[in-house]
Amino acid sequence: MAFSTERRKDDTRKSNRNPYLADQAKGLSLVANIVSGNKNLRATQIDDVVDLIFSSCGHIRVTDEVQLSAQLKRLTERLKTPMRYKILNGKSVIGVGGTFSAGKSSFLNSLLNDKSVLLPVAQTPSTSVSTYIMSGRDENITACNTFGREVKLNAEALQAISHDFREKHGLNLALYLDFVAVQSAAFPVNNVVLLDTPGYDNGVDIKNLGDKTRSQQALKSVDRLIWLVPARNGTASDIEIDFIKKLSEDLEVLLVVSKCDLQSEIYTAANPQNNYIVQKIKNDFVDKGINICGVIPYSTVDTDWPNENSCKKQIIDFLQRTSRTSRTVSDIKGEINSIINSLRNDFYSSSSELERQLNTIASQIDAAPNPLDIPSVIRLHGVLGSQFANIKFDKEVFENSVDKLNKWVNERLGA
Question: For the residues 200-227, what does the mean pLDDT come to?
C-alpha cells in the first residue's frame, strides 16, 4: 500500500512538471497538432492488392507461398507512408516485443543512454505507440499520425503520450498515432532501427486483443526480432509462442531474459546464460519451433553485468552484426520484383504442364477410331481444359493486380 501511495505521488510530480499534462491549453494544442490531416486510403488499400495477387494463384502450385506472401507484406508495409520508407531506407529493422510489463521501454532506454530523450515507461498497453529508435546526428522526434502526416514533437510531448494524458485530459492520443520515430546521437549503431511495439496483457481478455493485433501488424515488417521475457516468469507462455509464429515462419528471434537483477539465482550466477531458468525459457521457445538465434540475460539497472562481456555489449554486438545486412529502398523494389517473377514462373510452369497434358490427350482422341468409345479420356480433356481456362483468367487478375502494386510502389519511391 505504501508503494502504491509513493507511485501515485511520483506520477503527480511528473504530471506537474510536464507542461502538456499540467496545462490544459498546452495539452489541447498537442491534440490539435496530432489529429490533423486526411486519411491516405491508397496506403491502406494496398493490403487488399497484395491479398488479391496471392488469391489469384489459387489454381497453380506456388513455391514457398507462405514465405513469399509474408515477405511481400513486410516490404509493402515499409512503403506505406513516405515518412516510414524515408527513415527505414538503407537500414535493417529489429522489432522489440514482449508482453506488457516485460520491460521493453526500460530496455530500449538503457541502450539509448540519452536522458534528454527517454521513452515513456509504465504505460498501459492501450496508450503505447509503435516507436522506431535509430541513430541520428541530432536529437529528433517525429510522429506520423493515422492520416499519414508528420508531426514534430519534443521530449516532453513524447513523455506526455501515456496513460497520464488520458487521465488528465480524457483523450487517448495513441489512437491517432501510427508510429513515432526517435533519432539520437547516443544510439550505438548505424544502419539499424529498433521498433518498440505496444505490449499486451498475457491473457485472453477481449479488451487486450486490439493491443495484440497492433503489435503483430507492426512486427510483420521487421527483419529480426528481440523478444523480452521477464526472468520471474520462468517459462514461455503458449500465447507468446503463438504470437511469434504468426509473424513469419523463418523470423530469427534473439531472446532477452529481462529483469535478471530481481532474480538472485540468475544475477549471482557465475555464468547466467547457463542458469536453469534462462535455459528453460530458451528451450520452451525452441521446442515449439521458434527460430532462436541466441539468448541474453539482461539487467537495465546494471548494464555492465555480469562481466567484461556485459549484457549491453552483447546486445550491441548483435545490432552491429545485423547492420551489415542492411538494404536500400532500391533493394526493396528489386525484392518485390523477384517475388512477382517467382509467381510468374509458377504460372508458366503450371499452364505449360496443363497444355502439354491437353495436347497429349487431344492426340489420343484424334487417333481413336471412334472418340465415343473413350468417354473417360474426353471427360479428362474437359476437366483439364477448364483448369487451363481458370489459370488463364487468374493470370489476367494477377497481372492487373501487379500493375496496381507497381504503380503504388513507384508513387511511394517518387519514381
Answer: 70
DSSP 373-413: G-HHHHHHHHHHHHHHHHHHHHHHHHHHHHHHHHHHHHHHH
Phi and psi dihedrals of 248, rounded to 5?
A: -170, 140
C-alpha separations of 83 from 143, 174, 215, 343 in Å: 9, 18, 19, 30
Question: Which three three-digit cell numbers place residue 392?
Answer: 488463364
Answer whether residue 83 shows pLDDT above 90.
no
User: What is residue 133's three-state secondary structure?
Assistant: strand
Burial of 370 per CB tally in 10 Å (0-12, 13-18, 19+): exposed
CB contact at 8 A, 172 and 162: no
Q: C-alpha 369: how far from its chain's center?
A: 64
CA distance 50 to 382: 32
pLDDT digits (tens, 9 = 90+) for 368-398: 888 888 889 999 999 999 999 999 999 999 9
Using CA atoms, how far apart are residues 224 and 74, in angstroms rounded to an integer?
Answer: 12
Share the mean pLDDT of the chain. Answer: 85
For residue 354, count other CB atoms closer than 10 A to its CB. Answer: 20
- Give this prediction's pTM: 0.72
Helix (H, G, I), strand (E, B), or coil: what is residue 255?
strand
Find how far residue 305's CA is from the centre of its chain.
30
173 within 8 A of 30, measured Cβ to Cβ: yes
Write the pLDDT tens digit of every residue in 342-376.
Answer: 999 999 999 999 999 999 999 989 888 888 888 89
Considering only CA atoms, which of 318, 204, 301 is closest in space to residue 261?
Answer: 301
Tell me the C-alpha to C-alpha distance, in Å, between residue 57 and each of 2, 50, 368, 396.
Answer: 62, 12, 35, 11
Q: Are 87 and 136 in contact (CB under 8 A)?
A: no
